[in-house]
Design goal:
This protein has 395 residues and is α/β, with parallel strands linked by helices. It has a single domain, classed as 3-Layer(aba) Sandwich (Peroxisomal Thiolase, Chain A, domain 1). Helix content is 32%, strand content 20%. The strands form 3 sheets. Strands 1, 2, 5, 6, 7, 9, 10, 11, 12, 15 and 16 form an 11-stranded mixed sheet that branches. Strand 3 and strand 4 form a beta hairpin. The radius of gyration is 20 Å and the shape is globular. The chain starts with a strand and ends with a strand. The mean pLDDT is 95. GO terms for molecular function: 3-oxoacyl-[acyl-carrier-protein] synthase activity.
Length: 395
């Protein structure tokens, strides 16, 4: 069974649609990343989306996360309405990855409680349910099929895309709205800072000088179905390290397993992969184990596949990261469909590879040009606790 991904609807600090995002990641435009001050008075570097480009979402609980989600969904609204009309509301699923639990209204509500010993009159614990970003889509488009939310940190939206595919393959639905949404809220910034995982400068993945993550807002959604389109979801692979609550298995064994499963699932040989969008968070342990995993699968065969992480441009959008990076892979395939000499997404960093890691073929501005037709893209997502997921997209 062949599954196709529609043109994505995306929002990020690097672009308010897929074309703008593509221009940013191929040019290395980091202007969307700025210093912000959180509610604790501390200053952070973050990739936030400006409120100026967002409109009211119409959600029951109006929050920035919903405005971003709605803006991305509006870009593919016609595609969503088309599958609902074609297959019926009960034959369409919603699968969303997110880590946000109504943090904006929750923080405001608790601040009022601590100041006045009561919550706002309109405050509801419903906003803290992880399902809200998914039920919003079902309500907005009248979808009555399965509605699922996935919260496995950085791999959340990869899991959502995979589950949407599995629901279609099982014959439970005929189409699914899949993707992810997250924001770099104050509580998220403070929380990651407490883990000493946030960089004081823009993230610098795989460098010997890397300091940590740059967090960001983002959303990306697709319609996934059997309806013939330009780009296929060829396969996927998942694994769970069960090594530590936050740290990955330092050997990279769990990530390697997910990569190998994705290749097997897709029927793609390692030599066929033309580009890998790395997870590349810029943290010491995550970059280390990912480099080992990629090298074990590709480097062991002498394959120097072009790789890059786009997080120095988009920021790490957590639950939305996998879907946003799948959208970048989608666009890379579209741009290079039966064409040569196009550019791949570049990695903006200091160029000083960590010598303790396997040396990857990292795409920079000098090496971004593809001389052969790009037919297969690979996207890695390796999350807290070793929740690993890889997606394979192709023409």
């Amino acid at each position: 069974m062949e599954l196709y991904l529609s043109k994505p609807g995306v929002m990020s600090c690097a672009g308010n649609n897929i074309d703008e995002l593509w221009n940013s990641v191929t040019e290395g435009n980091q202007t969307g990343i700025k210093k912000v001050t959180a509610c604790n008075g501390e200053e952070y570097v973050a990739a936030r989306i400006s409120e100026e480009v967002l409109k009211p979402s119409g959600a029951r609980y109006e929050m920035k996360v919903m405005r971003i989600e709605n803006a991305a969904l509006e870009q593919i609204a016609d595609d969503i309405k088309a599958v609902v009309s074609k297959y019926g509301a009960e034959r369409v699923a919603v699968c969303v990855g997110s880590c946000d639990n109504g943090t904006e209204l929750s923080l405001a509500g608790h601040r009022k409680y601590f100041e006045e010993e009561k919550f706002p009159d309109n405050y509801s614990l419903e906003i803290q349910g992880p399902d809200y970003v998914s039920t919003f889509i079902a309500e907005k488009f009248g979808i009555c099929g399965p509605v699922n939310t996935f919260s496995t940190a950085c791999s959340s939206s990869a899991g959502a895309i995979i589950k949407g595919a599995e629901l279609i393959m099982a014959g439970i639905v005929d189409a699914a709205v899949v993707g992810g949404i997250d924001i770099a809220s104050d509580t998220t910034l403070i929380g990651f800072s407490a883990l000493e995982a946030v960089s004081s400068e823009i993230t610098n993945p795989f460098s010997k000088n890397r300091q940590g993550i740059t967090l960001g807002d983002g959303a990306a959604f697709f319609v996934l179905s059997r309806d013939a389109g330009q780009i296929k979801l060829l396969g996927w692979g998942e694994s769970a390290d069960a090594y530590h609550m936050t740290s990955p298995d330092p050997s990279g064994a769990g990530a390697e397993k997910a990569i190998r499963r994705a290749l097997e699932s897709s029927g793609v040989a390692a030599t066929d992969v033309g580009y890998i969008n790395l997870h590349g968070t810029g943290t010491k342990f995550n970059d280390s184990m990912e480099a080992k995993a990629v090298d074990a699968v590709f480097g062991a065969q002498g394959i120097k596949v072009p790789v890059s992480t786009t997080k120095p441009v988009t920021g790490h959008t957590l639950g939305a990261a996998a879907a946003l990076e799948a959208a970048i892979c989608w666009k890379a395939l579209i741009e290079n469909n039966k064409k040569n000499n196009i550019k791949l997404p570049v990695q903006i960093w200091d160029g000083e590879q960590d010598e303790e890691l396997p040396q990857l073929n990292i795409v920079d501005r000098k090496s971004a040009e593809v001389k052969e037709e790009l037919k297969v893209c690979f996207s890695n997502s390796f999350a807290f606790g070793g929740a690993n997921a890889c997606l394979v997209l192709g023409i």
